[in-house]
Request: fold
Amino acid sequence: MCYAIPGKVEAFVGENRVLIDYFGEKKLAINELDEVRIGDYVYAQGGYVIETLPPDYAESVLDLWKESFFRLQELDLSLSRAPEAHTQNQRLLRILDKAFYGKDLDRDDLLYLIHLEDPQDLEYLYRSANFLRHKYTGNSCCVHGIIEVSNRCTCACKYCGISVHNRRLPRYQMSVEEVKDLALSAIDRYGFKALVLQSGEGLPLDYYVSLVRAILEERSVFLCVSFGEVGLEGLEALFAAGARGLLMRFETSNPALYRELHPGKELSSRLEHIRHAREIGFLVFTGALVGLPGQTLEDIVNDILLARELSAEMYSFGPFIPHQDTPLAEARPPDPELMLKTLAVMRMADYRQGRILVTTAFETLDSKARERGLMAGANSIMLNITPIHQRRSYAIYPNRAWRDEKLETQIDEAISLLQSLGRAPTDLGVKT
Ligand code: SAM
Reply:
């Protein structure tokens, strides 16, 4: 199985976009390749055209996919039908009806949703989020692979297990050659078309740029970087090297809480990075931590609104999980229900286009998180390509889900879950 299906270019749209057809389903993608012509087969991933394909090859792959493509679509349709309301909560019904009729939900609506506690109300919210996910974004599911290139970090984030607080952690930094080999094997052996490179903060910019260059010199792939605050010029250098995605959470939209949790840092600087990245052309993946000590439900709604305002291409919200070697060792993780609610409310806030990730942290908190999240509005997952011994040292929080599973096992489990839910790894395209 590969993590993209070939599509056929149908039209050029605006300055740099193309309309791509996948068995009748149309998606927009950004195209930077001069050679692309109408009628060409291409792989697109992460909202970018990655490469053109020889017609014989593309048609043979599509032949393999044809039957299962429509079967998956039908299955997703049957699992995401308009929900029956078993709730008498009139305010909830009115809010969700607004979304069903294509109107935007406002702050008060989202606040009301995040406060829901009644199991029948929550069930209706989750089913509604899943219905809207299907209606507007179809059964596409993004499958990205992440390589955690180094756990070195100069930051003192109070919640993070790889911050300077953790003096017991063995530190590693993969060589450029090592990262390149991992990426090439993920692309060639396992069919990944979108990779995220992540590390702690404060490694030399040259190193980050060399990683991006080394991979892109060898293969076409959607590369997303997640190295923290590399400076605005650093972002430009990474973009020039070919990275096209930036994964950078703002962590919390509450400036005082941000300051409290990130000594010596300001939320405004983080946001400046995210906004600059967007301006220079990066697709931005952002979001916040859920359940931080001192965070309120109002803060979470503000996080959702800020993520939407930042025009994120993908939303990444994950639960805070306490780590024993950090100042927040004694704090408690959030209730998994709050996490699921956040994903569903995020979907209600941007039901037309957004990608929403089910994070590994949520999977660590709740062993059914991936399925629950995908059935409550989410449509992206991430598999971990980092070799197991280094994965264990990338201990941002304890006992990470999938920490000890071989990549093959992760892929098998992902495929079987996606197939059981009727999801296909077609590109979700970019926002219009
Ligand atoms: N240095 C990069 C940055 O600053 O974005 C990426 C690495 S950072 C470790 C990746 C993410 O891990 C952060 O955005 C944060 O939300 C998450 N994280 C850190 N500690 C965590 C914890 N204890 N529980 C859950 N997520 C955590």
Q: What stands out?
A: The chain has 15 helices and 15 strands. The two ends are 29 Å apart (CA to CA). Residues 48 and 114 are 33 Å apart (CA to CA).
